[in-house]
Design brief:
36 strands; 8-stranded parallel barrel; alpha/beta; 7-stranded parallel β-sheet
């Protein structure tokens, strides 16, 4: 149903063929308005282009089609061929595409402007004069004035930020009409208020501690604002507490301070950050539970304790003190309470003083944990006041419905289309899941689970704080305030420190009690005396809750009671998540449609008879921004977290369904900032519309004589290049016509605004794909443009060096353009940050070294985009125009293999050069010397290269370039004594002896001759790795088998051709480096880093065929065998893919060698390895804290005169591995080592045999027993101990340490049962192996949407079981084997960022099995590191005890 005011908006837009700008209130159903407008589009006039952000493509398309299924809607993506694009542009349909695609198509004339009838922009508030959208409109309007331009925005407050922003946007889009539709507009208000829903406003009183925290935060925020006003740098009118409640406040302050940011002191900069933190504290106070809030405060305390200003404010200690009181308190074991501060005296001491009998009013904390210090930890666990109110109202709704049903009356609020659904709208997904737990279980259990997780994390957090305490021992004031202790005198301070220590010990004791209860319940699960909620919940530590009374019987509205239950739950997961192993939870949480919220039907609950029945409840996270009202059609709505946009959506929903009985409950905290923020958001929007109305009355939009908008007044800029120049007095009344300037621009540069500004200056933009440079101004001048952020990142990754090197090679005038933002300071760093000494890590030092290395390089500094355009104009004067064809060929080998116009006249065969640079051991620093040693293309380099090569920990020095001769596969070779044993009965082995065995998981190629030809070609190629490297890895793995090292093995599930690029390789390598540092720091032992990289292509399959929609095709087996596209051609095995896999493996390993040895892996760079999307996360903060400690240790070494330039400090050993699956490929790369006579598979340093191919008499085991590489065996819970011992004896008959690594993949429960038997069998046989855990493969599940995922909790649980079993058996946990990536993917659920089932589709990139992202990998590394640290301390303690006894 289309509302009348929406019809009015559409009719107003269609009246003016030039288009218009529509600004309407947030929540007034912009998608429906757009759908109605598009349905009236006439296909006879041309194509209508809908421009949007690329990440919104699929969501927007599905939403529009759901509203109007008959829309002629098509999508243009970057993968679409040019011919298809041309046909779509001329199809007169509605086309969805990104601005970047359209601008390139316009400049390359793939899109004809005459075929475009109009443009639609949905994000008008984010546009500007220099944006790509205005560039597009300017080009189209230059050739097609009749094209309409429509722009929409529902962010009115963003349209009034800045000077005359709306008017400037309208001019840049050539729009002359502005349509304003606020909520208070007559037509809108009349229609929405004609039949309003029944609204119940429930004001829930906050607890006294919540009120105290809120008051303290507001006081601290006001104090920070007063300090900000003293700077006289910001408009005083904007600095109010009310403005500080919104996210836009940070943008307002930064926009005013950015131009002078370099002149500000550290205190002012910190104040800006502090205001953001305080706003979050206010928001989280009313959004999350008490324990989560305290945990967040602890993280802020750790990360900001010594640089934040707000922590030292007068009222800040109250925030921490009251937050603790909401969760726990301490008292003496004799029943006396610890002294607390008076409400009226803020500076009074708050210490754990002996003999003090003052006590607070009890807050019902009776569950306690005694410690040996005389303190008792009392659990308060204050519940959120809204929880009880929500439960009571839901029970009232269900009681009323039951009464109506029993009396035979028709249910007034239940209709056939919705079944009386109740919708609860929360701010975020975490709140939804926690409320779901409260309704499904009980608030007491939810709080106790959170309390458990807090205790365990608290201990871990305190461990990381210890070094900081020592470092800042001289200034204890700040830290004392954070612990809730105000030092007054030295004696009191000493007593306070003692009290803090006692508190810490009490928390440790509570955590220990939890662990003891966990261990006890795991052992006595069968004899559990308490009734079970679900017998299937044991696997995850869930479902052990006791019978409890309903919350209405144990809680008061003002939250003065707490649970009397003293049982400690066993769930120690770090986040709230739904356990997939709970049968009950699965039954009551179905998913409806695409992204519909989770549903709770309490009629399925059978916990106790005292819990009242509840109606069907759905929880919806407002941050998802989905049309949930139209999908669910609820009859009752709870606005749990008030949001203005959602309230408007409810009004529109009711207006569209006037006959529907709708009841809306608002849950506000009384006298809270929640109410203030909601009311302020309405006032802010109304104020924005009032300002827009005033601006509209004073706007001056220039139009021509035909009534078309002229756009921005840029006559002065165009005058120099316009062909219609006015006649002047120069040259006898004539002005010489100037030649049009041309600039060749790389396609990737259209993400910036510079091409738009250059076009605005009258230059012709030619978009092409450039291999060298970003802009080509002339045949001699090439420009590489860098923003400040990109400059720092390019130096860090080494990319800038390579870019400048290629520019210097091909152009006489290479230019590095460093471009600053116009609204920011024209400086790298503030004057206060510039030190006296010059370090090699300083950005100025790096630029100086770059210029010294490349003397012909020119560096240009530009203040803004417009300044860059002026600089380009100056550079192009007296220069020839660039040649598009030549610019595209630069850096690309031609058919003859030579590069034309190379200014250094090197004229090497570029194909041969590129092949040479891919070879192992060849780097950017030595490949030129190798080429100089060649007298001709067909001769080998004869002189020694010892002076040209650098130290490579991954490979030995290369004295000469040669290919080791491959042995004749037809000649049977006897295995040396180290590879076979007479006891096995298998004394003879040859390269092809595996062919006499049964081989599983091998593809069937249609052309055997082609396969043989490819294998012969690969056999003639150089080896990817060398035998000496594999032997070195074997020695290190021997240390891991003895508990003296730890193996970290990780990488992609399966490498792909599509994702092969330097950034992906670098990011995965960087995460492995970070994990290695974390593990080294915790274990205090060497970490062996092995990547599932440079060869991990093939994947085993349980079914050789795959069926989709009735079509049966061969299964996808990896990019080196067939394609993943579900069509017959892609699924046919192609032998040529093996060559591509070889070349990709060589390229990957070469890049890994460069990273490992070129300075990127230096210990001095440990703080620079953080990925951008991990940088601001909890794991990123923990990693940066650890990196700071490493930097301090390195600084101490340098100060003490110890060298830190040792190669071991600047390089890292890195090895590669993959599953030995494709035996013909592995055989082709097997070589006989010239020094030992042993055979090595030179495709990787380490190989493993999988679960599906480890048959004792199978071909894979036969092949592996004859090679001398370190080997791995994947072992599941199906492995028999006797079979494992036999397999070990076959593969390692001489029992050589480091030869065998057993990789277990069982799942947490099976691990505890099966692994001990395997360990004992191996030990009794006297075998030496390295035990490694693969927690990924045993925990793969399939979600309802069809995707595979792995719960992070299950992965952690299996690792915990792995360490527990080895501790129990007295063996060594030797390593971990993970499938992970450095990309920001959402493939495994859980983790500190709480990835849910609904998040999987957002960044699910794997084409095989789900992988951990960088944040989850780091979180896992910290957990393993903590376990290794505890194991190390325990071993040291036992050793010390033994020494004392002796």
């Amino acid at each position: 149903m289309v509302l009348k005011f929406q019809e009015h908006i559409v009719s107003d837009l269609l009246e003016d063929p030039n288009g218009g700008l529509v600004i309407l209130s947030s929540g007034l159903s912009l998608p429906k308005l757009l759908s109605s407008f598009l349905s009236l589009h006439s296909q006879s006039t041309g194509s209508l282009l809908l421009l949007h952000s690329p990440h919104l493509s699929s969501a927007l398309k599905s939403l529009l089609l759901s509203l109007s299924p008959s829309l002629p809607l098509s999508e243009i993506t970057a993968d679409l061929p040019s011919s298809n694009r041309l046909s779509l542009y001329s199809s007169n349909r509605i086309l969805l595409l990104s601005p970047r695609i359209l601008i390139v198509d316009l400049l390359t004339q793939k899109a004809q402007t005459s075929l475009i009838s109009g443009l639609i922009f949905l994000n008008a508030h984010s546009l500007s004069e220099s944006s790509t959208e205005s560039f597009i409109v300017r080009i189209i309007k230059a050739f097609n004035k009749n094209a309409s331009v429509y722009a929409f925005s529902d962010k009115s407050h963003s349209m009034v930020s800045g000077f005359a922003k709306t008017e400037r946007i309208m001019k840049s889009l050539f729009i002359k009409r502005l349509h304003l539709w606020p909520r208070f507009q007559v037509n809108v208000s009349e229609e929405l208020e004609r039949d309003p829903p029944d609204v119940v406003d429930i004001r829930v009183p906050m607890s006294k501690y919540m009120v105290g925290i809120q008051k303290a935060i507001v006081e601290v925020m006001d104090a920070c604002l007063k300090e900000m006003r003293k700077t006289n740098k910001v408009d005083v009118e904007d600095l109010t507490v009310e403005n500080g409640l919104f996210k836009s406040f940070d943008e307002i302050v930064r926009r005013q301070l950015d131009p002078i940011w370099h002149t500000l002191g550290k205190k002012t900069k910190q104040l800006v950050s502090d205001l953001k933190t305080l706003r979050k504290l206010l928001d989280y106070l009313v959004r999350y539970d008490a324990v989560s809030y305290l945990k967040y405060l602890d993280t802020r305390r750790v990360s900001e304790s010594f640089r934040s200003v707000w922590i030292f404010a007068e009222s800040s200690y109250k925030i921490f003190d009251y937050a603790k009181k909401r969760v726990y308190r301490f008292s003496r074991s004799d029943g006396t309470k610890i002294n607390k501060p008076s409400k009226n005296v803020s500076g009074k001491k708050r210490k754990l003083k002996e003999g003090d009998n003052n006590s607070d009013a009890a807050i019902a904390g009776t569950s306690s944990t005694s410690t040996n210090t005389g303190l008792v930890l009392e659990e308060v666990l204050e519940e959120s006041p809204k929880w009880k109110v929500l439960r009571e109202v839901l029970e009232e709704i269900e009681e009323e419905r039951q009464k109506q049903a029993s009396s035979g009356e028709p249910l007034l609020d239940v209709e056939e289309d919705n079944n009386g659904i109740v919708l609860v709208a929360c701010k975020d997904e975490r709140s939804c899941m926690q409320l779901e737990d409260c309704i499904n279980n009980s608030p007491q259990k939810v709080m106790r689970d959170e309390w458990q997780k807090y205790l365990l994390s608290k201990v871990e957090l305190r461990e990381f704080q210890r070094p900081q305490k020592k470092k800042h021992k001289k200034t204890p004031k700040g830290y004392g305030i954070l612990d809730g202790i105000v030092p007054v005198t030295p004696a009191q301070n000493a007593e306070a420190s003692s009290a803090c220590k006692q508190e810490h010990e009490a928390l440790l004791a509570a955590a220990s009690e939890i662990k003891r209860n966990q261990a006890k319940k795991e052992k006595d699960a069968a004899g559990e005396p308490e009734p079970q909620v679900s017998s299937r919940g044991h696997g995850k530590g869930k479902g052990k809750g006791k019978t409890k009374k309903g919350p209405s019987n144990t809680r008061q509205l003002k939250n003065k009671d707490c649970s009397k239950d003293t049982e400690v739950a066993t769930d120690d997961r770090p986040e709230i998540s739904v356990s997939e192993n709970e049968g009950q939870r699965n039954e009551i949480n179905p998913t409806i449609g695409n992204g519909v919220p989770k549903h709770i039907d309490s009629n399925n609950e059978t916990k106790t008879d005292n819990i009242k029945r509840l109606p069907p409840v759905y929880f919806h996270a407002l941050e998802r921004d989905q049309p949930v009202l139209d999908v669910l059609r609820p009859s009752t709505i709870f606005v749990y977290h008030p949001d203005m946009t959602f309230v408007r959506e409810i009004e529109v929903y009711k207006a569209e369904n006037p006959g529907k009985k709708l009841k809306v409950y608002f849950l506000f905290y009384e006298a809270s900032t929640e109410v203030q923020k909601f009311e302020a958001s309405i006032r802010r929007e109304n104020g924005a519309f009032e300002s827009l109305i005033r601006q509209k009355s004073m706007m001056m939009i220039p139009v021509d004589q035909d009534g078309f908008c002229l756009g921005l007044n840029n006559s002065s800029e165009f005058q120099g290049s316009s062909s219609q120049n006015s006649i002047t007095r120069k040259a006898g009344g004539r002005k010489e016509s100037e030649k049009e300037m041309q600039v060749i621009v790389d396609m990737r540069e259209f993400m910036s605004s510079l091409p738009n500004v250059l076009h605005l200056k009258g230059m012709r933009i030619i978009p092409v794909t450039l291999e060298v440079g970003d802009y080509v101004l002339s045949p001699l001048i090439c420009v590489e443009r860098k923003s400040i952020q990109d400059l720092f990142m390019s130096f860090t990754s080494g990319r800038l060096y390579h870019q400048v090197e290629t520019m210097v090679r091909y152009y006489r005038i290479p230019v590095l353009l460093i471009e600053f933002s116009q609204d920011k300071s024209f400086s790298f760093q503030s004057a206060s940050d510039i030190g006296d000494d010059v370090t090699p890590y300083n950005i100025i030092s790096k630029l100086s070294l770059l210029v010294l290395h490349f003397p012909r390089l020119r560096i240009i500094w530009s203040r803004s985009l417009h300044a860059t355009a002026e600089i380009f104009t100056s550079l192009k004067s007296n220069q020839d125009e660039p040649d598009e064809a030549k610019a595209m060929r630069v850096g690309v080998p031609s058919e003859e293999g030579f590069i034309e116009n190379d200014v250094r006249a090197e004229n090497y065969n570029t194909s041969a050069v590129e092949f040479l640079r891919r070879l192992p051991g060849v780097t950017d620093s030595n490949y030129r010397a190798i080429m100089e040693g060649c007298s001709a293309n067909l001769t080998a380099p004869k002189p020694s290269l010892k002076g040209a090569t650098t130290r490579l920990p991954l490979s030995p020095p290369l004295p000469t370039l040669h290919v080791t001769k491959k042995p004749n596969p037809n000649i049977t070779a006897s295995v040396s004594s180290s590879s076979a044993s007479p006891s096995t009965g298998q004394t003879h082995w040859s390269l092809d002896s595996w062919k006499s065995k049964r081989a599983h998981q091998l593809p069937e190629y249609p052309d055997a001759n082609e396969l043989d030809s490819v294998l012969r070609t690969i056999g003639s190629f150089p080896p990817i790795v060398f035998a000496g490297e594999a032997r070195k890895l074997e020695d290190k793995l021997a240390n891991a088998a003895l508990g003296k090292a730890f193996l970290l093995q990780g990488g992609d599930c399966a490498e792909s051709f599509k994702e092969f690029n330097a950034n992906n390789i670098r990011d995965t390598f960087r995460v492995l480096l970070q994990m290695g540092i974390v593990l080294t720091f915790g274990a205090q032992m060497p970490v062996i880093t092995v990547g599932r990289m440079a060869g991990q292509f093939a994947k085993p399959r349980s079914d050789p065929f795959e069926v989709k929609d009735g079509v049966k095709l061969p299964s996808y087996r990896g990019d080196n065998i067939n394609g993943d596209s579900f069509d017959e051609k892609s699924r046919v095995p192609d032998p040529q893919r093996l060559i591509r896999a070889y070349l990709q493996s060589v390229g990957t390993l070469n890049l890994l060698r460069a990273f490992a040895t070129g300075g990127y892996a230096a210990m001095q760079r440990v703080s620079q390895w953080n990925l951008d999307f991990v940088r601001n996360s909890e794991q990123g903060d923990r990693y940066m804290e650890l990196a700071q400690r490493v930097d301090e240790a390195l600084g101490f070494m340098a100060a003490a005169g110890l060298t830190i330039d040792d190669p071991q400090m600047n390089t890292v050993d890195f090895w590669t591995s993959h599953e030995c699956l494709h035996l013909p490929y592995e055989q082709a790369l097997t070589r006989e080592d010239s020094t030992t006579g042993l055979y090595y598979d030179c495709s990787a340093h380490m190989l493993w045999v999988g679960e599906r191919t480890r048959q004792l008499d199978g071909a894979h085991v036969e092949f592996l027993r004859g090679i001398s590489n370190p080997l791995g065996i994947k072992v599941s819970d199906k492995m028999d101990p006797t079979e494992l011992v036999k397999l070990c004896e076959i593969l390692n008959p001489r029992n050589k340490p480091g030869r065998l690594t057993i990789i277990t993949r069982m799942g947490a429960d099976s691990m505890r049962v099966k692994l001990p038997h395997l360990i004992r069998a191996v030990r009794q046989a006297g075998l030496i192996v390295t035990w490694v855990s693969d927690p990924m493969h045993g925990n793969t599940i399939k979600v309802p949407c069809g995707l595979k995922t792995r719960p992070f909790d299950a992965i952690r649980a299996e690792l915990r079981a792995f360490f527990d079993v080895h501790e129990q058996e007295g063996s060594y946990p030797g390593g971990v084997h993970l499938e992970m990536t450095g990309q920001n993917v959402t493939e495994c659920i859980g983790g500190s960022k709480t990835i849910t089932f609904d998040d999987l589709n957002s960044r699910y990139h794997t084409h095989c099995d789900p992988r951990l992202n960088a944040s989850q990998s780091l979180e896992l590394a910290f957990a393993i590191s903590e376990r290794l640290r505890k194991r190390r301390l325990k071993s040291a303690k036992e050793l010390l005890t033994d020494n004392r006894v002796n």
